[in-house]
Design a protein that fits this description.
mainly alpha, about 0% strand
């Protein structure tokens, strides 16, 4: 297509040639026409084809693509010309590739002068994209960056200018469609510009406009309204002309939704610049407004999702049966929108939260009782980092049914076997870290109460409630050190109990146990630091032992009387916490024994949980040894009872069908007994010296009794009777190795000497228990593969 024919087509608002053809022709002639591209650039930007109002996304992107390809074609032509006709005189007196690109870019920018701002923005965005990839070539990139910023600023000025009625007649009208198209172009160009230049733009205004555009793209959360009910056969067959179909198709195919990744990236970049500036408070306010907007969108989506039968599906791969192909594709599009909403929220929140952790806390506000401020108007409270963190936590709570598709926030892998949503977990735990380090106890209590109430309320499907329950438990686990004892006792404990023995819902089951362990860990940490003076001056929290202690010194306006009152409050809270743990220990000890069965807690989980229980029980000042020994007694009773049951079963066992019927159950019980033995070993580092010695003797008795039973050949005299010798030796070896590892790596300094003395006194017994006695009466301490045992080899 010649230049004249191209200009002819551009003079028609609706030419009869495809858009791709015009784009390719414009790119070619911009790069190839001589002597200058200025006239063609001016003709293109002022042509009726591109000036048609309202501008469309396709035409603006075509203009962008044409200028990007033109820059690349011009560079290739200059390189080819320089290589083909090289000579010394040309190298000295002729313009090189870099000079040619500079001149060409300058001429193109001259042709764009005076054009409509949005068209100039599209052209300059294409130029910037084309020359950014030219490494080692300075093709007037700084000037193109300036033109991009100026063009965008002019559009924003037209959108926000406040003028009189008569002035409006002479200003171009900028509607939401044009604004969204402008922001799409900005999202393609601004990330390529240095942050120092972007500060010249009205970034708070740009952040608000981006937030409004993204919210509008998601229909403000209303895209799941009017989902039809399932038929009697359990199928969804949505007519193509239904409102739900049209809404999903319009939303998922809109230019703004298709450009959501770049729009989210630009918004995140703006938050980084705002929050990293000396006036970070303005950035906090804009970021908080954005997260609150997404929270409202997520709440609306959750309400519509819970009311629909779509909540009965586990995800986009679990569409109800007998559903038509078109409807299945429609529901997959709906799930894609939900995941896009989650991705967008995560990207924006991660950008804001990762920056605000470096913002120093604001100075304390003057007291309202001060004579100087008593009659002064109180300023409006400004958003703080904990406000942003709480907004994100509550937003994720509304989207818990989407979060569960990636394995939840506490899982390291997704249900499909991948790594899960790593950025989601980073944002989640960062938000909770900010809350636990900056928020008050009352605020954390309120957050937990809201999450618990939200998990049990609503009219949605059972799966949705399970997802919210698992999410709420994961949140509670992280903020346990910041909660008041009253909240733990009245809200958290009652919320956890129903899930402690329900492994059918694995996420909630494991999270409930993690919450209880967090309570024990908080109590043990507080008890460990109880003798330190700083602990007696803590600001009312039981589990926090450092950091924001609220010391009542002169610089913080405290007094000795206030310090004494604060210390009394902390002492009272510590006493309440110890009483609560004292009542909690017996129940949870029995609960862990019940959960030692197959299919419940794994061996590693059981060992970790019982060790934490014993450690917390042994930290109680009122009855440390009694409560700690109670936990051990419960465990030993379970071991002896299970051992006696296996022995009785073996003694009464008959040959034939009954033996085959018992074999499977006996094997499971023997494995459970072995898990309990390993659990007993794991409690050794958590015990004070008197209890540790008693437990070590119990462990030695278990190992040596099993060895005597095997060597003596007497049925019913030991642990694991009925096993073959190799399997029993494997279990004893695992016990000895686990005991050695606990003594060597985890026993404290005060108990280390006594534990090592005890170990050396009985190491020969353990060597015999691992290797057994051979026909000549010698002890063989090697394993079945011929290698020395880990523990015995280090004796």
């Amino acid at each position: 297509m010649s230049t004249a024919l191209l200009l002819t087509h551009l003079q028609h608002p609706n030419p009869n040639v495809p858009l791709q053809t015009l784009t390719a022709a414009l790119s070619h002639h911009l790069a190839a026409d001589q002597p200058t591209p200025t006239p063609l650039a001016a003709a293109a930007i002022s042509s009726p084809f591109f000036l048609t109002y309202p501008p469309t996304h396709d035409r603006l992107q075509a203009l962008l693509t044409a200028f990007r390809h033109a820059a690349q074609l011009k560079y290739q032509a200059l390189v080819k010309h320089a290589e083909e006709g090289w000579s010394v005189s040309r190298a000295i007196f002729s313009r090189g590739v870099e000079g040619g690109m500079k001149e060409w870019v300058r001429d193109v920018l001259r042709g764009l002068q005076g054009g409509r701002p949005v068209l100039r923005l599209a052209c300059c965005t294409g130029l910037l994209s084309g020359i950014t990839g030219l490494r080692g070539i300075d093709a007037n990139k700084r000037r193109v960056e300036d033109e991009v910023i100026i063009a965008l600023a002019e559009v924003l000025d037209d959108y926000t200018a406040e003028t009189g009625d008569w002035e409006k007649e002479f200003r171009p009208h900028v509607d939401e469609t044009l604004l969204s198209l402008t922001l799409i172009l900005a999202s393609q160009s601004l990330p390529l510009i240095p942050k120092s230049k972007l500060s010249a733009l009205p970034l708070p205004l740009l952040a608000r406009l981006l937030t409004a555009t993204i919210a509008s793209a998601f229909q403000h959360g209303n895209f799941l309204k009017s989902i039809p009910d399932a038929t009697s056969a359990g199928a969804f067959n949505v007519p193509p002309d239904s409102p739900f179909t049209q809404t999903i198709q319009r939303t998922s195919t809109s230019p703004t939704m298709l450009s959501m990744p770049s729009l989210s990236k630009l918004t995140a970049l703006i938050f980084e610049i705002l929050l990293d500036s000396p006036r970070a408070q303005g950035g906090l306010e804009e970021a908080h407004k954005t997260l609150e907007t997404f929270r409202a969108i997520a709440a609306q989506v959750e309400r519509d999702y819970a009311k629909s039968n779509l909540a009965s599906a586990s995800g986009e791969s679990d569409i109800p049966p007998a559903t038509s192909t078109s409807t299945s594709a429609l529901f997959k599009s709906a799930w894609l929108l939900l995941k896009t909403l989650l991705f967008t929220t995560t990207m924006l929140a991660s950008s804001a939260l990762s920056t605000i952790v470096y913002i120093p806390p604001p100075p304390p506000a003057p007291s309202s009782r001060s004579p100087d401020t008593r009659n002064a108007p109180q300023p409006q409270p400004q958003p703080q980092p904990q406000d942003l963190a709480e907004s994100l936590v509550r937003t994720f709570a509304h989207l818990a049914f989407v979060v569960s598709q990636f394995g939840g926030v506490a899982a390291a892998a997704s249900p499909t076997g991948g790594e899960g949503f790593t950025e989601l977990r980073k944002a989640f735990y960062l938000a909770l870290d900010i809350l636990s380090s900056t928020a008050t106890t009352e605020r954390c209590d309120g957050l937990v109460r809201g999450l618990i109430a939200g998990a049990g309320a609503g009219e949605g499907q059972e799966k949705g409630r399970r997802d919210k329950t698992a999410y709420a438990l994961a949140c509670v686990e992280q903020v346990v050190p910041c909660l008041s004892v009253r909240c733990l006792r009245e809200e958290v404990w009652g919320f956890c109990v129903p899930h402690l023995s329900d492994p059918a819902h694995r996420a909630a089951y494991e999270s409930a146990h993690s919450v209880v362990l967090a309570v024990f860990a908080a109590h043990a940490a507080a008890a460990q630091h109880a003798d330190r003076p700083a602990h007696r001056r803590l600001g009312g929290r039981v589990g926090v032992v450092s950091g924001r202690s609220g010391l009542p010194d002169e610089s913080r306006g405290g007094s000795e009387k206030e310090a004494e009152e604060e210390g009394d409050e902390v002492g009272s809270a510590a006493a309440e916490m110890e009483e609560f743990v004292h009542r909690l220990v017996p129940f949870y000890a029995q609960c862990l024994i019940e959960n030692s069965e197959d299919g419940r807690l794994s061996t590693a989980q059981l060992r970790l949980a019982y060790a934490a229980l014993v450690r917390s029980a042994s930290a109680c000042a009122s009855a440390a040894q009694e409560l700690g020994w109670y936990c051990l007694a419960v465990l030993l009773d379970a071991v002896r009872g299970l051992d006696a049951s296996l022995r009785q079963e073996r003694e009464g066992e008959r040959e034939g069908e009954e033996e085959r019927r018992r074999t499977s159950g006996s094997a499971r019980e023997r494995e459970r007994l072995h898990r309990l033995h390993l659990t007993l070993v794991s409690t050794v580092p958590a015990l004070p010296l008197p209890l540790m010695v008693r437990v070590l003797e119990e462990i030695r008795s278990i190992i040596t009794r099993a060895t005597r039973a095997e060597s003596g050949g007497g049925a019913g005299k030991g642990v694991g009777v009925g096993d073959d010798g190799g399997e029993e030796r494997r279990r004893r070896k695992e016990l000895v190795d686990a005991l050695f590892a606990e003594i060597l790596e985890k026993v404290g300094d005060r108990e280390k000497e006594a534990a090592m003395r005890w170990w050396y006194a009985h190491r020969e017994d353990f060597a015999r228990s691992i290797g057994g006695a051979n026909a000549e009466g010698r002890t063989d301490v090697r394993t079945e593969d011929g290698a020395l045992s880990d523990a015995v080899s280090r004796l």
